[in-house]
TrEMBL record:
UniProt cross-references to InterPro entries, sorted A to Z: 26kDa_periplasmic_antigen (IPR052022), SIMPL/DUF541 (IPR007497)
GO BP, one annotated term: DNA damage response
Protein name per Swiss-Prot or TrEMBL: SIMPL domain-containing protein
Organism of provenance: Agrococcus baldri
PANTHER family, per database record: PERIPLASMIC IMMUNOGENIC PROTEIN (PTHR34387:SF1), SLR1258 PROTEIN (PTHR34387)
Length: 222
């Protein structure tokens, strides 16, 4: 009896279904009160927008759980006393379903100098990611069976039989199997309408599995 161990792999792709963006309100002023006041007003507008997007169904969820204020001394000129500068910031994160609505929102909030738009993280819905993961795992097993069959045939062995299955890294440390999330983003804004056109590429869900087989030598090969 001969043991054959192979690694089966599979990749499933689907277009992005969610886009998560973080918008930060930031302002600097000579006093903490002035900085916080400006940020609080800007942040309130963003929170109102986030609630509205969730209510309309354009967004799946949102949260506002980051706020900070810092202070530093700024150099003005030779022989001049340093001035105090206070910087306040707060952030809102929104997970959108509607990419067109997201583009319009980015275009509108970009007009306010207190707002800073972070990068967009593209993702799949939880349901789609689970479905693709299941399909990828099934195909990874099929890939392992095919690989083992090829090795057995080349070595003059009979049909291999599964003796063990494990995911890479479950018994010993090793390099992680990445679940790739790749997307492209195209942005353009018309002069009259400051909407941002967003188009996400495909995202990938990978699966890998180690399968151990056993196979007997063919009678004529003994």
């Amino acid at each position: 009896m001969v043991e054959i161990t192979v690694c089966g792999q599979a990749l499933e792709r689907a277009s992005a279904e969610r886009a998560t963006v973080t918008v930060q309100s930031r302002w600097s002023a000579p006093s903490a009160e002035a900085a916080m006041r400006a940020v609080a007003e800007a942040h309130e507008r963003l929170v109102a927008d986030a609630r509205s997007h969730e209510t309309s169904g354009a967004a799946e969820s949102w949260h506002a759980d980051r706020v900070s204020i810092s202070h530093h001394q700024e150099w003005v000129g030779e022989g001049q006393p340093r001035t105090s500068v206070y910087t306040a910031a707060a952030a809102v994160t929104v997970r959108f379903r509607d990419f067109e609505e997201l583009g319009s929102w980015i275009g509108s909030i970009g007009l306010h100098e207190t707002h800073e738009v972070g990068g967009i993280e593209w993702s799949l819905s939880d349901e789609t990611e689970r479905a693709l993961g299941k399909t990828a795992r099934t195909r990874a097993i099929a890939d392992a069976v095919e690989r083992a069959g090829d090795y057995a045939e080349a070595a003059g062995l009979g049909a291999p039989v599964v003796a063990g299955i494990q995911e890479p890294g479950t018994t010993a440390p090793g390099p992680p199997v990445p679940k790739a999330r790749m997307a492209t983003m195209a942005m353009s804004a018309a002069d009259a309408a400051p909407a941002v056109s967003l188009e996400a590429g495909e995202l990938s869900v990978r699966a890998a599995v180690e399968v151990r087989f056993v196979a007997d030598p063919l009678a004529h090969a003994i």
